[in-house]
Amino acid sequence: MLSSPRGILTALDHSARTGRRSDAEAKERRTMAALSSLGSLGSVPAAPGRIPLAGHVLQLWRRPLAFLASLRPKGGMVRVDVGTSSVYLVTDPDLAHEALVTKAASLGRGRVYERLRPVLGSGLVTSEGDVHQRQRRLVLSALHRVPAAEHTAISVHHAEELIAAWRPGEMVRVDEAMFDLVLGILLEAVFSSGLDRSAAAEIRYSTRVVSKGALARAITPQMLDRLPRSPHQSYDAAAARLRFVLDALIKERRGAEGDFDDLLSLVMSVRDPETGTAMSDGRIRDELMAMLMSGTEAASATLAWTFHELARHPKAADRLREEVDTVLGGRPCTHDDLARLEYTQRVLNEVIRLHSAPLLLRRTTAPVKIGGVHFPEGIELAISPYAVHRNPWLFRFPDRFTPDRWRTAEGSRLLPHGAFIPFGDGDRRCVGDAFAWTEMTVAVATVCSRWRMRPAYWHTVREVPAATPRPDAMPMIAERR
Ligand code: HEM
């Protein structure tokens, strides 16, 4: 049965759905992938639609997400050309696991992050190698010390405050409201003592500019930086103001008396277990920048997509409201409620599957073999959670919004490694996943307990490529339940 690639794929399809995929099948499939690629870089097929000289620029420009989702290369890897540069794109779960976990030591950050490092600094998102590993241990140690119940309480407070300001029939820009909500939660978690008005306004404004413009800043050619009227000026200026405000807040905290019960004081107090040293103020600022950039955009986009999907799937919305009513009974959410909001979490899982990161970018830092292909040092590679999550061999009718797929054998625990990677994997896996999960569950339950969100008829929402695909705009009408 497994003697042909088709047979192997059919077996994977069936076994992924039933969760009975055996190691032997996986191994055989990897071997087939390796044989079909014959092991050399040149034998990795180019993605369809390549134009001489321009490569795949047109597809990437016009319909990047649909292009990614359409790629089902034999062997799980395909070459995408942007002019004269190539990126090797992984769309197969086994190879994604190899690149993110088992071979991660031979992969660094790559060109895009090099372009962002001078503006964003050297926090977890942009750093690599030993510095990244050391910083990651310290940041994780601080984040793990934040009491979960406290984070839930902060999230509830901000979500309640948000919906208390809505009026029945009012148009809410859900994308912006969710951005403000998750940023507000993160800022209170970091600076429990509160921020003065101007610092808070500056952080809100600059974080929005910097996180939304990061992709454009990263992929435009470096020579544009030197133009007297560079298109990056406003972006770089916002990043510089953000650094300035964060530096001032860290300095202020150093001089303040008393104990602070927040993430900033935890980050300041953690010590490297090997050297016993604390993080410098510059490193702390870079880590705060990394959290602001990664934390707000992904979580707010996921929340906005959740209200969008619920509005398009009334039965799922009814079930979710029923669950919220039963569990909360009209009172604000508590930490103990989170585990009982089971259908709400299934909805979030399904939203995050459908709207996850288009690309996780890497560059080989040493020769390495992935999917049987030998990569020399310095090759750009990308793993696409977006493409993996829309793979029909792994998820039946992958474009359909089906929260209940997470209740059955198809659910995440029984999927093969690398098949569900909304938070990445391995030593670069998201450090804020638990934070995000709490605030998103609280936000959805709190909004749905009181409000029904109806799409505004005058706007057709488009998915815009970003680190996490975001809606171009999401106006919705808030109707009181
Ligand atoms: C739905 C919400 C979120 C999603 C989908 C998400 C997704 C991701 C993904 C896919 C990565 C890995 C990137 C890679 O491998 O190149 C990542 C890394 C990261 N995330 Fe998140 N994230 C979310 C929320 C958050 C939050 C709330 C925070 C902060 C509190 C955060 C902080 C970070 C940081 C600092 C990294 C870099 C980790 C490293 O490289 O060691 N994220 N995130």
TrEMBL record:
Heme binds at residue 430. GO terms for molecular function: heme binding; iron ion binding; monooxygenase activity; oxidoreductase activity, acting on paired donors, with incorporation or reduction of molecular oxygen. It comes from the Bacteria. InterPro entries: Cyt_P450, Cyt_P450_CS, Cyt_P450_E_grp-I, Cyt_P450_sf, Cytochrome_P450_Monoox. Residues 14-26 have a biased composition (Basic and acidic residues). Residues 1-26 are annotated as: Disordered. The keyword Heme applies. Keywords: Heme, Iron, Metal-binding, Monooxygenase, Oxidoreductase. The keyword Nuclease does not apply. It holds the Pfam family p450. Its cofactor is heme. Belongs to the cytochrome P450 family. This is Cytochrome P450. It comes from Nocardiopsis gilva YIM 90087.
